[in-house]
Structure formats: structure tokens, C-alpha cells
Amino acid sequence: MGSTEALLTQFFSQLDWVHPWAFVLLPLPIAMRLMPAYRERRDAVRVPFFARLLDATESRPQRGAMLLIRRRGQKVLITLIWLSLVLAAAKPQWLGDPIEQQKAGRDLMIAVDLSGSMETEDFSQPNGEPTDRLTAVKAVLQQLVDERAGDRLGLIVFGNSAYLQSPFTEDHPTWLMLLNETRIRMAGPSTALGDAVGLAIKLFKDAETEHRVLLLLTDGNDTGSLVPPVDAARVAATERIRIYPIAVGDPTASGEEAIDLDTLARMAEVTGGQSFEALSSEDLASVFKLLDTLEPNIFDSVNFRPRTDVHWLPLAAVIMLYVLLRFLARLGALYRPGAPQ
Predict the structure, then answer these.
(1) In this predicted model, what pLDDT tens digit does every residue of 110-122 receive, in sequence order?
(2) Alpha helices for the chain (secondary structure H)
(3) Spatial contact of 141 and 110, defined as CB atoms under 8 Å apart
(4) Is the Cβ–Cβ distance between 282 and 48 less than 8 Å?
(5) How many Å from the N-terminal Cα to the C-terminal Cα in the chain?
(6) Is the pLDDT of residue 256 over 80?
(7) Exposure b/e, 267-277, CB count within 10 A at least 16 = b
(8) Contacts of residue 171, Cβ cutoff 8 Å, sequence gap at least 6
(9) What is the pLDDT of residues 17-39, one digit of tens each?
(10) Phi, psi torsion values for 43, nearest 5 degrees
């Protein structure tokens, strides 16, 4: 007995109804039986020669009215048909076993400076050969991407203005391809730092995750953004965006190539992030390892149960029951007393 109850409980737990309100229609036939019966009068013709008419037509007289009585089996079938129609209207769905999927738990936007100063060759490759700053950044970002499987990545490049190179995506190989297509000065020779933050804010507004991080790589100071970088950072803070500025290159440079470390530090402070300095490829790698500690991988679990429509089953039952009902009605007509054989 206990096993039967367990099976029934499991069965009904895997059954869901899209339109459960349809069950209020179940007692409708009972309500219709409480209504007065429909009666109708018809005109008739009386003839004085009715007996001779029967003899001429060789017909036998029958009662002028018949009361059709449904058999018990027909009542059961009609009840089952109505029940099946209501079940189909409620649209049952069969729930499969729960499935758990993991999706990206953080949106990580990476903004890369493509100003002319990024062509300075003060970084070195693993073999010791000198390389420009952008090439070094690309190499380290590739390592970063390999370790950020739980993040949706976006890419902004900026020079005279800021441009979206890649929207947020979990397709990391495509993201890397778009990163490798970037070239120095392709966005202009200047550094619109504040505009890059502003564009990132606009993109984050459409993001679904609550964990929002902007990684800002630059080797210069702001040279004419529409919004000052610190003001843009304050707006980012209201959108719950943490900014991690990374100063790439020589901090002792002067003129337009000078790095405004104070501004970068202030941007990180107002958003709850942290600023860094990287003078070599090794420094960049160390910074990204530290970022893994500050912003560890996050995965959001999504649970769902696949649904399969099974409303066709009660509809199929309606058709079969109707055919059976018609068959029984025909069979009863053949064997009713007085029926022609």
C-alpha cells in the first residue's frame, strides 16, 4: 500500500497544469441537469381514413412519441468524455527530472588603451626580445581569459573616443580574436579615459548579473573626454561597477605620455576597486593573479525542469470514447424491440 501511495505521489509531482482553472468546468453537466427539461409541441394532422392508409402502405402502427433512455454504460462513457475534455483544456504537462546548468556569474568589461604611446617598446617577450606595450597586454590578457571561464567578457578600445569591440559574451575564443584584431592608433592617438568608462556604464546597464567589473588598461592620462574620469567613476559606482585601473608603462614619463596615477587611484577608490602599476610583462601577470583573488570566478546555477505537453492524451481518449459510444448506440438500436432486423 505504501509503495502505491509513493508511486501516485511521484506521478502527480511530475504533472503540472497550464490552465488549472479549467477544472471549475467539471460540475457543469450536473448544473445543466438541474435545469428544466426542454419540451416542444408540434402540429399533427388527423385523418379519418388512418386504418385504410396503414393497410395501403402495409405499415404497422407505433407510438407517436418515444422516450430515449440512456443505458448505464452510455452514461459512464459520456462522463468520461466530459472529464477528458476538461483535462485537455487544463493542458497537462509532464515535468522531467531537474536539470542544473551553470552560467556566467560576472560581467567583466576590459577597456584597452590604443593611443600612440602604446607602441613604446619597453616590455619584453618570454625570450627576452623587446615588444610594445599593446602586444604585451594582449599576451597577458590571453592568459587571463583562459582562467576566467565563469565570466562574460566584453571589450572596449579607446583613443580619441571609446568604441565597443565586443559586447558581453561567453564565447571567449571569439573575444580573443577580436582583441587580436586591434591595432595601435586605430581609435586615434589620444586617450579618452572618461569616455571609455562612460561607454562601459552604458553597456553594464543592460547586463543581467549583479557582479560588474571594469578592467581599465592605459598608459597615459585623459586628454579631452566629454566626462572627467573621476566623475565617470562616480556614476559607475551608482551602477555597482567596480573599476580596476592598471597603469601600463613608465610612471616617470612626462607630457601627454605621463600616467595620471592619482586619477586612476581615485577612480578605483570611489568604485570599491583597486589601482595597479605594471612596468613589465611579469608585473602584468602578477596583477592579473591578484585580480583572481580579488574577483574570483563566480558561477550562477540555474535549475529547470523540461516540460512536455501531454494534453493530446485526453484528446485521443475523447475520440476513442466517442467512437465507442456511437458503436454502442448503434448496437442498441439494432437490438431494440420493434427495430427492423
Answers:
(1) 999 888 888 888 7
(2) 2-13, 28-33, 50-57, 72-89, 133-146, 172-180, 193-204, 229-238, 261-271, 281-294, 312-334
(3) yes
(4) no
(5) 52
(6) no
(7) bbebbebbbbb
(8) none
(9) 888 888 888 888 877 777 776 66
(10) -75, 145
DSSP 38: P
CA distances from 111 to 58, 194, 217, 219 (A): 104, 11, 6, 12
DSSP string, 261-329: HHHHHHHHHHHT---EEESSHHHHHHHHHHHHHHS---EEEEEE--EEE-THHHHHHHHHHHHHHHHHH
What are the cell numbers at 333?
438500436
Whether the Cβ atoms of residue 182 and residue 76 lie closer than 8 Å to each other: no
Residue 258 Cα distances to 159, 218, 223, 247, angstroms: 15, 11, 11, 10
Q: What is the reported pTM?
A: 0.59
Q: Grid coordinates standing for 332?
A: 442498441
Distance CA 88, CA 283 (A): 67
Residues in the chain: 341
Q: CA of 205: how far to CAs of 50, 105, 108, 210, 234, in Å?
A: 93, 16, 13, 10, 15
Reading the block at residue 252, the C-alpha cell is 616617470
> Distance between CA atoms of 142 and 203, rounded to whole angstroms?
22
The sign one gets for the Cα dihedral 233, 237, 239, 241 is positive
